[in-house]
Amino acid sequence: MIPLQNSLPYDIQMNEVFAAHCPFCGQEHVPLPLKPEDVRDLRDGRRKQAIVFPCCRTRVQFIDADGDYLLADQRLSPRR
Ligand SMILES: [Zn+2]
Q: Cα of 34 to ligand 1 centre, how many Å?
């Protein structure tokens, strides 16, 4: 089970991976520096993937994925 507070909804369009929104700064439809193959590797548990959100430069390590969500090793919520 993926803990919801660690998960990020994503979408693949035109061979690019988008986050529905950035959990840290709130920007919508953020293109992630991930390829669909990277998401597949995450889903297969083949490897982990650290990325930096382009909108606010927040670094996140993804450790798993399913068909709708990327799972991070940290809670994804706005920094206060
Ligand atoms: Zn952001």
A: 15
Å from CA of 39 to ligand 1 middle: 19
Domain boundaries, the chain: 4-72
- Whole-Å CA distances, 4 to 26, 37, 50, 57, 70: 17, 23, 19, 22, 10
* Average model confidence (pLDDT) across the chain: 93
Residue 4 confidence class, pLDDT cut points 50, 70, 90:
confident
Going by the DSSP 8-state scheme, the letter that residue 6 receives in this structure is G
Q: What is the mean pLDDT of residues 41-49?
A: 95
CA 57 to ligand 1 centroid distance, Å: 7
